[in-house]
Amino acid sequence: MSEAKQKLIALEKEDLEVISALCQDAVLKVGNLKFLPKEKRFLIELRRFNWEKGEIEPERKLSVLHFERVNRVASQGIDPKSHDQVLSLLALIFEGTEAPAGHIDLVFAGDFTIRLFVDCIEAQLSDMDAAWAAQAAPKHPET
Predict the structure, then answer these.
(1) What Rg value do the Cα atoms of the chain yield, rounded?
(2) Structurally, how many domains does the chain consist of?
(3) Cα 9 to Cα 112: distance, rounded to the nearest angstrom
(4) N or C: which end of the chain has fewer CB within 10 A?
């Protein structure tokens, strides 16, 4: 198992694209999504595939992804009361409105989306100590 842990901060769209690539195919439960409106923070505990190691030694890591300066959260297709519903994260996409504000879409498999309305991009990905062997690397059909 790998000892290397990621700790990345995104303050620009390009930074968020790097975090998005590292979080592609992460799995999580709806119960692990937390919006803290008073702190303007959105937190996700996820189990991300360790793309840094690739398919040779497939591994998943427990990670936390959090977003700051979040004013509002909306979702499509997700029942917030369905705590055990499993989601597979495909991408994080920022779209600006009035710079530096905009929204970040968390796009999940199955046409599920969470939209974070933010003052600006401020996100952080932190790997925890837990890591374990994955049965296989995620596969996507080629388009």
Answers:
(1) 15
(2) 1
(3) 25
(4) C
SS3 annotation, the chain: CCCCCCEEEECCHHHHHHHHHHHCCEEEEHHHEEEECCCCEEEEEEEEECCCCCCCCCEEEEEEEEEECEEEEEEECCCCCCCCCEEEEEEEEEEECCCCCEEEEEEECCCEEEEEEECCCCEEEEEEEEEEECCCCCCCCCC
Q: Tell me the two tokens of residue 97.
A: 């409105």
pLDDT > 90 in the chain, percent: 73
Flag whether 142 is in a domain.
Answer: no
pLDDT tens by residue, 119-130 = 999 999 999 987
Q: What is the dihedral of CA 30, 37, 126, 124, to 10 degrees?
A: 120
Mean pLDDT for 88-95 is 97
In a domain, 63, yes or no: yes
Supply the range of the domain harboring residue 22: 7-131
